[in-house]
Structures are given as C-alpha cells and as structure tokens.
Here is the input.
Amino acid sequence: MPKPSRLLALAALLLATVARSDAPTKPLPSMDDAQVVHLKDVQWVPPKPKEFPAGAFGAVIAVDPQTGGTVGYGKFPAGAALPTHWHSFAEYTVLLMGTATITVDGKAIEMSAGDFIVIPAKVRHNLKCGASECVLMTRRAGPTDYHFEN
Here is the structure.
C-alpha cells in the first residue's frame, strides 16, 4: 500500500485535474516531472469565474502534488481588467508579453514583459492590461481560489 503522503499527493493531483473546466483525459504533469511547454501549443480555456473579462483565457500546465498548487498561463485582451480579488495562497507571476498595471494592496505597479511579482496570500490585487494583449505565467503556492470584492 502507498505511503499516506503519496496518497495525499495523488488525491491533490486528482482534485486539481477534476476542478479544471478543461479536465484532460490524463492527469496534469507534476511540477517535479520533466517537461517542455511551448506557449504556442497550450490549450487555452475560458476561466470559470464570471468576474473574468470577456476574451480572457487560461492554461494550467502542471500541479504540485504536495500542495495542490498549479502553474499555468493567463491571457487577457488589450485593455482588459481583472477586478480586485485575493487568494488563500501566495502567487508568483511573470508577465511574458505586453504591459500591465497590477495594483497590490492599493499600490499600482507598472509591469512590462519579463517583470516578476510576488503577491502574498490574502493581499488584495487587480490587473489591467495595457494597449496590447498581455500574457502571464503564474505559480500558486496552494490550490487556486478567487475571492472577488463585491
């Protein structure tokens, strides 16, 4: 019989896969697995929360079997805004393409391609893309959740 920690890891991987709207026929790779992902080949899907702007897409590419945290891409059209929200776990994001303003705890931060930001757990933040499409890569320290302000 597998060790309890291995069972928990498998359960987290299964939950992360089932929770996705585009759940593939096979589980997501572990963040510990060797893999190469080409941005041009990812499977974009619209996010589930209704608060996401029209034309936004995401692509989860791996899951941490220990924490249930994911790594994936987010894509937003030019000028799109994601309203103020927070997450239960820290978020680590690199802006890959475009420009964006990320407001963290009331402070606006201008970002351009290649910039990296860490947003601690439970800190309010929002995003506004610049004049062109913006693409992000985000790693989460635990399962993805969104708590939008009303």
About this structure: The longest strand covers residues 57-63. Strands lie at 57-63, 70-76, 81-86, 91-97, 99-104, 107-112, 116-119, 125-129, 134-140, 147-148. Confidence is low (pLDDT under 50) at residues 1-24. The CA atoms of residues 100 and 129 lie 4 Å apart.
